[in-house]
From TrEMBL:
GO CC terms in record: mitochondrial inner membrane
Name this protein carries in UniProt: Sideroflexin-5a isoform X4
GO biological process, one term: amino acid transport
Membrane topology category: Multi-pass membrane protein
Length: 286
């Protein structure tokens, strides 16, 4: 894979220099660009470890989602799965961060601790409130309990973004012209980037943590096979989570791609004076 990646990078560099060898097709160039964008960080140029790439989000994230949605969780299992989820998210966030401006590692540690604290607090607090709600029947309580991970995860994700990247609002982020060259630093683009990232973090877990509980409730009530053979519930649950994850990730990324575009008229006047481009791009992170 390392050799293939280097060949893709070399091919793209030859294209930029206008020295492509004869016989190279547009399809080969697009494939090279696709491979590079999937593996290499756009700001640092460093390789992103496989578990923390967006292409690795589903295979490495699905077991965590299955754990989050397990029924009849204890206090310790709730804390463990919320911690594991936020730890994985923190690594993905760091490896796919906007690195156009230097940021101390302490910012990411602060965001990680804040996300873990908020996720665990909300999940445990809602579980405690649910156990004290005597009006719910046991089946209703079990169904409601399955939806608790979503508000905990969504709130923690937003908290993570705010704590890790709030300095960008005052320092700004780099904006690029259509050649990929930096034309300036914009606080307005930073505000757009943080808002889009926060929305992505809310949209992404929604189908993953909301659809499976609804689908499993229907399947467990309607399928006699699952009622007779309870050991099948976990495999079916895992497949449902995998399907929901496969649906949600492309949806969230297509709504808010990592490289976003913005009109120079919406940015600071000095940005408009520094380039002839009408549209510039910025790395909003993931």
């Amino acid at each position: 894979m390392q050799r293939q990646l280097q060949e893709c990078i070399d091919l793209l560099n030859l294209f930029k220099q206008g020295t492509l060898p004869p016989g190279v097709t547009h399809a080969q160039l697009w494939q090279a660009q696709k491979i590079k964008q999937a593996i290499v960080h756009p700001d640092t140029g460093e390789r992103i470890p496989m578990p923390f790439r967006m292409s690795g989000f589903i295979p490495f994230g699905t077991p965590v989602v299955v754990g989050l949605l397990l029924p009849n969780q204890t206090l310790l299992s709730t804390i463990f799965w919320q911690w594991l989820n936020q730890s994985h998210n923190a690594c993905v966030n760091y490896c796919n961060r906007n690195a156009s401006q230097p940021a101390p590692v302490s910012k990411f540690i602060q965001g990680y601790l804040g996300a873990v604290t908020s996720a665990v607090s909300i999940a445990v607090g809602l579980n405690v409130l649910l156990q004290k709600a005597r009006r719910f029947r046991p089946t209703t309580r079990l169904l409601v309990q399955r939806f608790i991970p979503f508000p905990a995860v969504a709130s923690a994700n937003v908290c993570n973004v705010v704590l890790m990247r709030h300095s960008e609002l005052s320092e700004g982020i780099s904006v690029l012209d259509n050649q990929g060259d930096v034309v300036g630093t914009s606080r307005i683009a930073a505000r757009h980037a943080l808002l889009e990232t926060a929305l992505t973090r809310v949209v992404l877990p929604m189908p993953i943590l909301v659809l499976p509980p609804m689908i499993m409730a229907v399947l467990e009530n309607r399928l006699p096979l699952l009622q007779r053979r309870r050991w099948l519930v976990l495999p079916v649950h895992s497949l449902v989570c995998l399907a929901a994850f496969s649906l949600a990730l492309p949806l969230a990324i297509s709504l808010f791609p990592q490289m976003s575009k913005i009109s120079v008229t919406d940015l600071e006047p000095e940005i408009a004076m520094a380039t002839n481009c009408k549209i510039v791009t910025y790395n909003k992170g993931l």
